[in-house]
């Protein structure tokens, strides 16, 4: 193995179709029009020296190292800023150029520390490389003049340091922050000799500034000015492997750079088609959880959750679990056990869990965390378009003219895609944001939403129907598209429905709280502004009308003709790294792989023939049904792989009661999570760095996950599941995850052509990938929908049963924050906690003043389901009457507040609307203290005697 080296062409690739031929050092080169001379030379294998240029950034032309000569033209222009011309004759290496470059490098080196041998970037420094490339052997100016060598290092960021003494002021870090990330946290302050990189105002350091620690500046830096602390501590890596991030649904590709079995750093992979070489603080830096001391590496068992854990061998743990499963089914029936698969595990691992349930347990009691996040996406998009997935790839946003973001916070939840979106907005695309809270996209550097519609939580359907009302009644429907591509009768029914005056912006203003004029203007913009793309998140799905809102969004896209080409579409921003894949792999109790219902005889026969078993034709229990049945006494055994349902699911008291009623709870995870408080079998999980497999991201992209180190727990997750399957009598004998994917392809039409061989050749593919689309499908529904004709659905607004009143006058909604992820099991075990070490509740100043609450005060948060205490953050991001919090820290116990209301079609919980009251508090509630004690008690591990 060796380090994967990516070619840096110096400037970005031109998108022009017309080509130009020129001569460089006597060689004819043909490149797209608009290509820089530097890039054209690199295409020909001629490397022009450079320092300020890199192909992730627009050309800048400040370092003067990349100068060339052009026949018939005076001077020595910079090759990075000079575009090619037909017939141009370029020389990159002449005596004159050599003198100029050497002189420029002398100036740089005269004000640079001469500590190359002890520098962390020794061997990975472009300044060092360029000094060698231009033949620099001496510095005529000496080193005694005025310099910057005594500048102090800024070590405030937990992941990288800034050493201004080594800065050559090339501006690459500043430009990366602007062009790639879009945060504009860095600048060049001062003039001339006093110019220096500054993070914000002069009093700021990197930690206190607006820097979001995405790492773009570190990656862009050509010297050791910005360097990962891990490289300083461990040394430079010596081999690497491309793998896929295990955080959000963007699915970024990274080079995991290693020294032996030790991870040195994660470097975003430029050829990654989801992230195009960019990253966020989580994927780039927050991987320390994989080696955290809290990680459990040995199987453990106990008779009840009140006993101490006892470490055992895999054989004993698996035998114990299998005997319990068999005993429970013998006593209570085959439907008394089930499993919950993980959206953090690979496609192959998820597939095996649902196979274990259907073929081993003999029932369909399999569900996944998508139940509590994007199950309404599955229902809504399947009903309207014919399949449960987003319509576009991420590149599509580059061609969008109007972007509608509803119920999503991309800069926090999907930051790498958000950076691409912000870039398109800076280029001139228009923006509409529909969200109760003023998310960063509403107003951020060089980006401002044309319209922010801050609707009341729970009124999404009323809002989207009001938008449709304007489009229909003002004649803005793309009738040609609708007649050709959609069911006309359904459209007419829908159009008549939305055109009713009771659904006008004026009529629903009292419901949504948004001025009718703003709604009308936003609707007109979306319908007439060109390519319109809709991006939505959990603020759409986690409602009692989540499925209805998804269908209403689909209606808007069809009515305006914004489906089936680049720059448009309906795009759910998936929350976890493989939540799309978990659904694709048949993790719902009513569907096999590829979203085919278990009641379909021909589909069931395919699996029965392959697995040599009979499969139940009735859907199994959903997650909420499992808890209900457990409390009732009919559901007694549960296998949970990689999910923390006690922290993540709503109505914590009810979840606790369900888990308490089980006779067997198997938890497979990296850590003793909150759910493990009630477990009696713990099977150690395997991190993404220690396994092979695939993840499927929010754009349906199937990406390889590659093992870069041995499993610290001994086995990959799929191997542990296979052990359990064999122990209950199944014939399961896979030798590698590629064999599992081959089986998936055999039984799933949309995965028919998918194989590890194809993924190695293409890097990644987007399903459908079959005979009709042998190399995948970046844009869906071109020409026709998956179901044939698009189907409009009448979407009646029905107010949630969760309503405010005198006792609970405020509405609580929830979300995420940039530095933390989901329930925090991973990110809380990294240095990301320096940005967010506890959940806070955002309260509008008016509501805080009325209750005598100051910033940072403990407050009691109470709903009809329960109460908890949390510290207050006073902000006008939320409207009066609305409060907002995150759910990343278990002791906050936010979900003891949320209720059992859920989506009418899928049982997705209504996390986003909970009626609450807040009042001053002295600290944690009695429930929080009791929960803390339970957690401490349940995590006791028996200490073995030395003789044992």
Description:
This protein is α/β, with parallel strands linked by helices. A hairpin with an 8-residue loop joins strand 12 and strand 13. Helix 13 packs parallel to helix 19.
In the predicted model, the low-confidence regions spanning at least 5 consecutive residues are none
- Helical residues, percent: 25-40%
Tell me the strand percentage band. Answer: 15-25%
Strand order of the largest sheet: 13-12-27-26-25-14-15
> Mean pLDDT, nearest integer?
95
Category from helices, strands and their pairing: alpha/beta
Tally the beta strands. 36
The helix count comes to: 29
Tell me about the largest β-sheet.
7 strands, mixed
* Rg over CA atoms: 29 Å
Shape: globular
Q: Termini separation (Å)?
A: 40 Å
Keywords:
948 residues; alpha/beta; seven-stranded mixed beta sheet; six-stranded mixed β-barrel; 29 helices
Topology:
Elements: E1 19-24, E2 27-32, H1 37-43, E3 69-70, E4 89-91, H2 95-110, H3 126-133, E5 160-162, H4 172-181, E6 186-189, E7 196-199, H5 216-220, E8 226-228, H6 229-234, E9 239-244, E10 253-259, E11 262-268, H7 281-285, E12 300-301, E13 310-311, H8 314-332, E14 337-341, H9 347-361, E15 366-368, H10 375-384, E16 402-406, H11 410-413, H12 415-426, E17 430-434, E18 443-444, E19 447-448, E20 451-453, H13 460-473, H14 479-485, H15 488-499, H16 505-512, H17 516-528, E21 532-536, H18 538-541, H19 546-559, E22 569-572, H20 579-584, E23 591-592, E24 596-597, H21 601-611, H22 623-632, E25 637-641, H23 645-648, H24 652-660, E26 664-669, E27 681-684, E28 693-696, E29 701-705, H25 717-727, H26 737-747, H27 756-762, E30 764-766, E31 810-815, E32 840-843, H28 845-850, E33 858-862, E34 867-874, E35 882-886, E36 914-920, H29 926-938
Helix pairs in contact: 8-25, 9-25, 9-26, 10-19, 13-16, 13-17, 13-19, 16-17, 22-24
């Amino acid at each position: 193995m060796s380090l994967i080296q990516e070619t840096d062409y110096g400037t970005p690739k031109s998108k022009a179709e017309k080509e130009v031929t020129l001569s460089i050092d006597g060689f004819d080169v043909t490149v797209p029009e608009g290509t820089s001379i530097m890039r054209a030379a690199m295409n020909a294998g001629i490397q022009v020296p450079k320092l300020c240029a890199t192909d992730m950034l627009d050309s800048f032309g400040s370092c003067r190292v990349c100068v060339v000569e052009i026949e018939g033209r005076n001077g020595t222009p910079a090759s990075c800023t000079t575009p090619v011309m037909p017939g141009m004759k370029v020389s990159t290496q002449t005596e004159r150029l050599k003198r100029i470059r050497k002189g420029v490098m002398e100036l740089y080196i005269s004000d640079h520390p001469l500590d190359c041998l002890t520098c962390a970037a020794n061997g990975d420094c472009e300044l060092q490389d360029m000094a060698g490339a231009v033949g620099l052997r001496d510095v005529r100016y000496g080193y005694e003049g005025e310099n910057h060598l005594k500048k102090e290092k800024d070590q405030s960021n937990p992941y990288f340091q800034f050493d201004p003494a080594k800065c050559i002021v090339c501006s690459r870090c500043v430009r990366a922050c602007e062009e790639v990330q879009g945060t504009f946290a860095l600048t060049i302050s001062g003039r001339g000799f006093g110019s220096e990189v500054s993070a914000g105002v002069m009093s700021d350091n990197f930690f206190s500034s607006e820097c979001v620690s995405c790492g773009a500046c570190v990656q862009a830096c050509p010297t050791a000015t910005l360097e990962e602390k891990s490289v300083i501590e461990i040394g430079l890596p010596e081999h690497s492997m491309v793998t896929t991030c295990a955080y959000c649904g963007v699915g970024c590709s990274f080079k995991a750079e290693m020294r032996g079995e030790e991870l040195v750093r994660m470097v975003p992979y430029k050829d990654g088609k989801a992230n195009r070489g960019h990253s966020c603080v989580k994927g780039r830096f927050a991987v320390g959880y994989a080696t955290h001391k809290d990680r459990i590496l040995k199987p453990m068992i106990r008779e009840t959750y009140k006993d101490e854990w006892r470490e055992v061998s895999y054989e004993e743990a698996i035998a114990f679990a299998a005997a319990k499963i068999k005993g429970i089914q013998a006593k209570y029936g085959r439907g008394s056990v089930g499993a919950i698969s993980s959206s953090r595990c690979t496609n192959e691992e998820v597939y095996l869990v649902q196979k274990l349930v259907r073929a081993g347990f003999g029932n369909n009691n399999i569900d996944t965390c998508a139940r509590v996040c994007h199950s309404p996406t599955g229902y809504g998009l399947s009903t309207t378009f014919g399949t449960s997935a987003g319509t576009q790839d991420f590149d599509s946003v580059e061609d969008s003219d109007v972007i509608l973001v509803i119920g999503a916070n991309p800069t926090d939840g999907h930051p790498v895609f958000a950076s691409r979106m912000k870039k398109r907005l800076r280029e001139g695309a228009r923006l509409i944001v529909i969200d109760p809270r003023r998310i960063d996209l509403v107003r951020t550097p060089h980006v401002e939403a044309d319209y922010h519609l801050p609707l009341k939580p729970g009124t999404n359907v009323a809002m989207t129907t009001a938008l449709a009302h304007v489009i229909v009644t003002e004649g803005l429907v793309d009738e040609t598209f609708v007649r050709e591509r959609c069911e006309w009768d359904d459209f007419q029914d829908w159009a008549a429905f939305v055109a009713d005056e009771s659904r006008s912006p004026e009529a629903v203003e009292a419901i949504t709280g948004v001025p009718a004029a703003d709604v009308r203007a936003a609707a007109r913009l979306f319908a007439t502004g060109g390519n319109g793309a809709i991006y939505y998140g959990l603020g759409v799905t986690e409602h009692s009308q989540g499925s209805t809102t998804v269908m209403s969004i689909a209606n808007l896209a069809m009515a305006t003709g914004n489906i089936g080409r680049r720059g448009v579409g309906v795009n759910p921003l998936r929350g976890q790294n493989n939540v799309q894949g978990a659904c694709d792999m048949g993790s719902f109790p009513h569907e096999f792989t590829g979203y085919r219902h278990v009641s379909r005889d021909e589909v069931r026969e395919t699996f029965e023939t392959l697995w040599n078993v009979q499969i139940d034709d009735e859907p199994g229990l959903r997650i909420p049904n499992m808890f209900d049945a457990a409390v009732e006494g009919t559901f007694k055994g549960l296998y949970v792989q990689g999910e923390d349902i006690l922290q993540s699911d709503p109505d914590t008291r009810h979840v606790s009661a369900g888990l308490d009623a089980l006779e067997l709870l198997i938890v497979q995870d990296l850590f003793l999570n909150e759910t493990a408080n009630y477990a009696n079998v713990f099977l150690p999980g395997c991190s993404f760095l220690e396994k092979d497999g695939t993840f499927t991201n929010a754009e349906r992209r199937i990406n390889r996950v590659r093992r870069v180190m041995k499993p610290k727990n001994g086995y990959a997750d799929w191997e542990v599941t296979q052990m359990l399957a064999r122990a209950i009598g199944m014939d399961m004998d896979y030798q590698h995850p590629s064999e599992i994917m081959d089986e998936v392809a055999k039984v799933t039409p949309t995965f028919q052509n998918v194989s590890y061989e194809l993924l190695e050749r293409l890097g990644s593919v987007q399903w459908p990938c079959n005979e009709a689309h042998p190399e995948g499908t970046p844009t869906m529904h071109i020409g026709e929908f998956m179901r044939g004709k698009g189907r409009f659905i009448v979407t009646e607004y029905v107010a949630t049963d969760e309503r405010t009143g005198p006792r609970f006058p405020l509405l609580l909604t929830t979300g995420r924050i940039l530095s933390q992820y989901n329930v925090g099991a991973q990110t809380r075990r990294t240095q990301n906690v320096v940005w967010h070490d506890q959940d806070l509740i955002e309260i509008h100043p008016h509501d805080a003043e009325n209750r005598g609450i100051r910033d940072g005060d403990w407050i009691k948060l109470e709903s009809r389901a329960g109460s908890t205490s949390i510290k207050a953050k006073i902000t006008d991001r939320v409207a009066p009457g609305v409060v907002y919090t995150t759910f990343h820290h278990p002791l906050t116990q936010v979900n003891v507040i949320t209720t059992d209301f859920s989506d009418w079609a899928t049982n997705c919980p209504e996390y986003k609307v909970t009626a609450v009251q807040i009042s001053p508090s002295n600290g944690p509630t009695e429930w929080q203290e009791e929960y803390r004690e339970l957690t401490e008690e349940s995590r006791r591990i028996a200490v073995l005697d030395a003789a044992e």
